[in-house]
């Protein structure tokens, strides 16, 4: 442990950018997020084109449980804030704080995902299956694709926590934490668009 604290004491303020490899990792990840943005943009376009084609299935207005979606949104937005706190702890070389805030982020993200699974299950019981209509297919593809990204993020943060426990905070683990935080904010921004385009517009009609 003493070797970790010794290394931490010598870490620069932004350890994620201290090495060329770290900076390259961050730049490369921004490019990856650009590709992801195009992918989600395509799914949004498909959803907007097909959202009125409900066939015999329920309409968005009949379907959506707004209180549930609002709660899920609050959980995910709060988890974005706690991931900011984890970065602040990292910049203060506070390993305990970093791990603590990442665990809170993990718990909030898992709660969001649990609500989404419950929501999907509820919709299927209401006769809104994946193949019910063009609207239902585009809805599940867009929202489910986002949910899969959340699930991947949760797995990622678990692996990060294990690495931080084992190796501590250094110029190798710091860029990984930073890149995860970028990914998590991206997921949050996408959800704000889903909340607006799918749920708010669905309720307003």
UniProtKB/TrEMBL annotation:
UniProt subcellular location: Cell membrane; Membrane
Keywords of this entry: Membrane, Transmembrane, Transmembrane helix
Spans traversing the lipid bilayer: 29-48, 68-87, 99-118, 138-162, 182-202
Its membrane topology: Multi-pass membrane protein
Alphabetized Pfam families for the sequence: COX3
Domain (Heme-copper oxidase subunit III family profile) ranges: 28-203
Phylogenetic placement of the source organism: Bacteria, Bacillati, Bacillota, Bacilli, Bacillales
Family recorded in the similarity comment: Belongs to the cytochrome c oxidase subunit 3 family.
Annotated organism of origin: Paenibacillus septentrionalis
Protein name: Cytochrome c oxidase subunit 3
Domain of life from the UniProt record: Bacteria
């Amino acid at each position: 442990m003493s070797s970790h604290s010794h290394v931490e004491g010598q870490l620069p303020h932004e350890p994620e950018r201290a090495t060329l490899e770290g900076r390259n990792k961050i730049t490369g990840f921004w490019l990856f997020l650009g590709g992801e943005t195009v992918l989600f943009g395509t799914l949004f376009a498909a959803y907007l084109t097909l959202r009125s084609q409900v066939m015999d299935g329920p309409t968005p207005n009949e379907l959506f449980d707004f209180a549930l979606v609002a709660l899920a949104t609050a959980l995910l937005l709060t988890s974005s804030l706690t991931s900011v706190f984890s970065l602040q702890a990292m910049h203060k070389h506070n390993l305990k704080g970093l791990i603590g805030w990442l665990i809170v982020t993990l718990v909030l993200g898992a709660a969001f995902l649990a609500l989404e699974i419950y929501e999907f299950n509820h919709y299927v019981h209401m006769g809104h299956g994946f193949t019910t209509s063009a609207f239902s297919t585009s809805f599940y593809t867009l929202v489910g694709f986002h949910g899969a990204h959340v699930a991947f993020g949760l797995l990622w943060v678990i692996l990060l926590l294990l690495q931080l426990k084992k190796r501590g905070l250094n110029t190798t683990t710091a860029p990984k934490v930073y890149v995860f935080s970028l990914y998590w904010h991206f997921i949050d921004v996408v959800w704000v668009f889903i909340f607006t385009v799918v749920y708010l517009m669905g309720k307003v009609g």
